[in-house]
């Protein structure tokens, strides 16, 4: 099977906002407790944070982490997480039917972000609470001092404001499961007024309004139109969420779901344009895809955990999906979709980061380890920074009922002009055939392959575990080269690949140079 791609440095989609590779930590399951925070762990730092986890997060170069939820935020009192730990209240978390000790709050999370070399993306509670709590939280987090809430922060040990710029106005407010669920009009009005108040404090904030929880919600995409009609001039992003599953065990269909994601992004981009035109506005609103991942492996187990829970457990194992090799391919296709839509998707958050539907897992008192999906996320986050290239792609296709023709080749490319690199992220969706790929790069000048990595396995269902964390890892490929401006690569069936090229100076008359060096008279 053959496929051809043409890349040109002037044919671009957009500069990539590094926050496209963000992630998410919610007070849910073991994300916080025994995930990032475990004071008795042998690697715990002075704040009780696991240093082994911090090192893995740093390896991923995560630019932002959304916090504290998720569904959790919609009944969260942020004030419960400040002040001396021993006097913080234990609350019932209605979203996940668990107990919240509040031993970790905004101070602890902010310190963790500093240690993990990442930034905070904070969410305010617009479910059980509203504008007043949001503006107080903002004052606590961002005001220098001399007011009630900023002085409390200082008294609690943090003199400097954190100056968090990126704020979510609630979470999934279209979902009937959400505490304080609202209609689009109710939410749109509240989000608008909350945004206005927050901007009155700091007009340079970046605000994210809730879009649909998924593209199958009965209110989608009317929800986006109504909410943006209320909020367009006060917000910068509309949030979308999507989770992927393969319960039917149909790999070809599963791997085609990123086309559905692409359609979802395209529809919401259209709604944004519609409201922009309706408002006669020159301002742009972009998409913050702040929850995405594969999520289905743990669902049955979780039903049993919650049904069998005696009361309200603290930090039970919930949403602990064991990712398999097939999910590497899915996550690779999702990330390619975001890169190829980098003109409208500026922020995206892999949900979530530790233990809860996560690339990083921990054993309480034991090791932290990488799930299979760690690898495509790692490659995109570390090497996918720069400008997304608009590729011309010619690939054989297969038919999927609700999506039409789906290309076997899924690909994106990122040009980093400063580092002189072009990086390709590739998935071969074919179950049996190798893809002979030709990429024409003539206009880039002389390029050489500096890194070629593959993630592949003969067993789609293989997982990494605490005892066998290296069942699925990335492996270096040798022998791929660029000849006369053409990269030729053989992409194995059902494999993920990252190929990095670097520009170099190629002498025009190499024979003459050699003769001069050899001091030979011609
Ligand atoms: O990420 C898990 C949950 O999925 C989040 O709490 C919620 O926002 C979404 O439904």
From TrEMBL:
Q: What is a single molecular function from GO for this protein?
A: alpha-L-arabinofuranosidase activity
UniProt keywords, alphabetically = Carbohydrate metabolism, Glycosidase, Hydrolase, Plasmid
Catalytic activity line of the entry: Hydrolysis of terminal non-reducing alpha-L-arabinofuranoside residues in alpha-L-arabinosides
**Enzyme superclass (EC):** hydrolase
Q: What EC numbers are recorded for this enzyme?
A: 3.2.1.55
Q: Which SMART domains match?
A: Alpha-L-AF_C
Query: Where is each Alpha-L-arabinofuranosidase C-terminal domain found?
Result: 290-495
Q: Which InterPro entries match?
A: Alpha-L-AF_C, ASD1_cat, GH, Glyco_hydro_b
What is an annotated GO biological process for this record, any one?
polysaccharide catabolic process
KW tRNA-binding (keyword) present: no
> Which family does the similarity line name?
Belongs to the glycosyl hydrolase 51 family.
Q: How does it assemble?
A: Homohexamer; trimer of dimers.
Q: What is this protein called?
A: non-reducing end alpha-L-arabinofuranosidase
């Amino acid at each position: 099977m053959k496929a051809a791609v043409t890349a040109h440095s002037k044919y671009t989609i957009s500069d990539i906002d590094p926050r496209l590779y963000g992630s998410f930590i919610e007070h849910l399951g073991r994300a916080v407790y025994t995930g990032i925070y475990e004071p008795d762990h042998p690697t715990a730092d002075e704040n009780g944070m696991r240093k082994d986890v911090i090192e893995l997060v740093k390896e991923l170069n995560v630019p932002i982490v959304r916090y504290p939820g998720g569904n959790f935020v919609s009944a969260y009192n942020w004030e419960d997480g400040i002040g001396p730990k021993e006097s913080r209240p234990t609350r019932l978390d209605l979203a996940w039917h668990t107990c919240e000790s509040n031993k970790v709050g905004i101070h602890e999370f902010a310190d963790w972000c500093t240690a993990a070399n990442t930034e905070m993306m904070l969410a305010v509670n617009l479910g059980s609470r509203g504008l007043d709590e949001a503006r107080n939280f903002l004052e606590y987090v961002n005001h220098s001092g001399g007011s009630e809430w900023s002085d409390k922060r200082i008294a609690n040990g943090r003199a400097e404001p954190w100056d968090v710029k990126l704020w979510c106005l609630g979470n999934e407010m279209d979902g009937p499961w959400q505490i304080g669920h609202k209609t689009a009009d109710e939410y749109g009005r509240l989000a608008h007024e909350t945004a206005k108040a927050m901007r009155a404090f700091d007009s340079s904030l970046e605000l994210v309004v809730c879009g649909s929880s998924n593209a199958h919600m009965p209110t989608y995409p009317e929800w986006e139109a109504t909410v943006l009609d209320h909020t367009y001039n006060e917000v910068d992003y509309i949030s979308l969420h999507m989770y992927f599953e393969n319960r039917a065990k149909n790999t070809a269909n599963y791997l085609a779901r990123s086309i559905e994601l692409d359609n979802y992004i395209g529809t919401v981009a259209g709604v944004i344009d519609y409201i922009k035109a309706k408002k006669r506005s020159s301002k742009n609103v972009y998409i913050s895809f702040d929850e995405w991942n594969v999520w289905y492996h743990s669902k049955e187990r979780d039903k049993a955990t919650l049904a069998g829970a005696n009361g309200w457990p603290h930090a039970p194992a919930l949403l602990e999906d064991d990712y398999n090799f097939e999910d590497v391919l899915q996550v690779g296709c999702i990330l390619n979709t975001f890169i190829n839509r980098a003109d409208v998707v500026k922020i995206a958050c892999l949900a979530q980061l530790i233990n809860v539907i996560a690339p990083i897992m921990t054993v309480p008192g034991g090791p932290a380890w990488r799930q299979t999906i760690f690898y495509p996320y790692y490659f995109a986050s570390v090497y996918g920074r720069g400008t997304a290239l608009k590729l011309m792609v010619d690939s054989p296709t297969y038919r999927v009922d609700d999506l039409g023709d789906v290309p076997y080749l899924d690909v994106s490319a990122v040009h980093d002009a400063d580092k002189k690199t072009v990086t390709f992220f590739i998935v071969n969706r074919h179950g049996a055939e190798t893809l002979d790929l030709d990429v024409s790069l003539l206009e880039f000048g002389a390029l050489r392959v500096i890194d070629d990595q593959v993630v592949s396995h003969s067993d789609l269902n293989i997982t990494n575990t605490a005892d066998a964390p290296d069942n699925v890892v990335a492996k270096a490929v040798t022998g791929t080269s660029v000849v006369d401006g053409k990269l030729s690569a053989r992409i194995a069936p059902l494999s993920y690949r990252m190929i990095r090229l670097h520009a170099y100076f190629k002498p025009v008359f190499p024979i003459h140079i050699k003769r001069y060096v050899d001091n030979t008279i011609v």
